[in-house]
Every structure is written in structure tokens, then in C-alpha cells.
């Protein structure tokens, strides 16, 4: 069930509290799939519009960042394993089952309903990856 994305943009769909077909939040998404894009990540930015998906990734750091961020670790099925807030200058522990990492401005993921156990989907290049 491997996913291969390309660097670019898309949409992150977080299901609503009732689950099912109710999209709780549909957000702009940047996808960083190449080594170069993953390495750059959010470095040097003062704000994030939506979220950044790093894939493949199992851990992140915030060295050189200007803002605190929320980090969600996702497994291969895009189920959230954990959500953490990281201030600048920290090294996050890698998650063993994590295959993808979402980054966003600190505090926004709770408002989106993103928490452990939630399964998100990603729309990129006209292709939807997520719950079937």
C-alpha cells in the first residue's frame, strides 16, 4: 500500500466528528516528497497556510525554525499516531510506525480535530489517497 507523491500542492481532508463522508476540515496542503523539499520543510518561514506533508518521514526537528509547530505522525494508512507541539530548536523523537509527518502552525491541529486515531486523506494531482 505504498504511496508515492511528488512535490507540489494538494488538499488535506480531516473527517468531521461524525466520521463517514462528513469532511470536518479541507485544508491547503504542500507536499514535500523529494529529499531536497523534505530537508527544507518549513525552514525560514514565518507562517504556514494549511499544512506541509513530509513523505516519507518518521521524525522531524525544528532547528532553524522561526515559529513553533504542530507535528502529526501518520502511519502508512494515514492514521494519526500522535500529535505534538514543538518549539523552535528541538529534535523530535522518530516514531517507529510513522511513514509520513504533517506540520502546521502551533495550535491549529486541535481546531481541525486532528488527534491520535483519526484517519485523514490527501488529494494531490487529482488522486485521492486515504480511507477506502
Overall description:
The chain is globular. It starts with 7 loop residues before the first strand and ends with a strand. The protein has 132 residues and is mainly beta. The protein has an 8-stranded mixed beta sheet with strand order 5-4-6-3-2-1-7-8. The protein has helices spanning 35-40, 108-112, and strands at 8-15, 23-32, 51-54, 69-74, 80-86, 100-105, 121-124, 127-129. The longest helix is centred in the N-terminal third of the chain and has 6 residues, at 35-40. It has 2 helices and 8 strands.
Ordered list of secondary-structure elements with their pairings:
Blueprint: E1 8-15, E2 23-32, H1 35-40, E3 51-54, E4 69-74, E5 80-86, E6 100-105, H2 108-112, E7 121-124, E8 127-129
Beta content: 35-45%
Provide mean pLDDT, rounded.
87
Strand arrangement, largest sheet? 5-4-6-3-2-1-7-8
Please work out how many helical segments DSSP would assign. 2
Low-confidence runs of at least 5 consecutive residues: 126-132
What characteristic shape results from the CA principal axes?
Answer: globular
Question: Helical residue percent?
Answer: under 10%
What class, by secondary structure content?
A: mainly beta
The description of the largest β-sheet is: 8 strands, mixed
Radius of gyration: 13 Å
The end-to-end span amounts to: 12 Å
Amino acid at each position: 500500500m505504498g504511496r508515492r507523491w511528488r512535490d507540489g500542492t494538494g488538499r488535506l481532508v480531516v473527517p468531521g466528528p461524525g466520521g463517514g463522508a462528513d469532511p470536518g476540515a479541507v485544508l491547503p496542503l504542500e507536499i514535500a516528497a523529494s529529499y531536497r523539499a523534505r530537508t527544507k520543510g518549513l525552514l525560514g518561514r514565518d507562517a504556514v497556510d494549511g499544512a506541509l506533508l513530509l513523505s516519507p518521514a518518521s521524525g522531524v526537528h525544528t532547528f532553524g525554525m522561526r515559529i513553533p509547530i504542530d507535528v502529526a505522525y501518520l502511519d502508512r494508512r494515514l492514521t494519526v499516531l500522535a500529535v505534538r507541539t514543538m518549539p523552535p530548536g528541538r529534535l523530535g523523537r522518530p516514531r517507529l510506525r510513522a511513514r509520513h509527518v504533517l506540520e502546521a502552525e502551533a495550535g491549529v491541529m486541535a481546531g481541525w480535530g486532528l488527534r491520535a486515531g483519526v484517519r485523514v486523506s490527501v488529494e494531490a494531482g487529482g488522486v485521492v489517497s486515504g480511507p477506502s
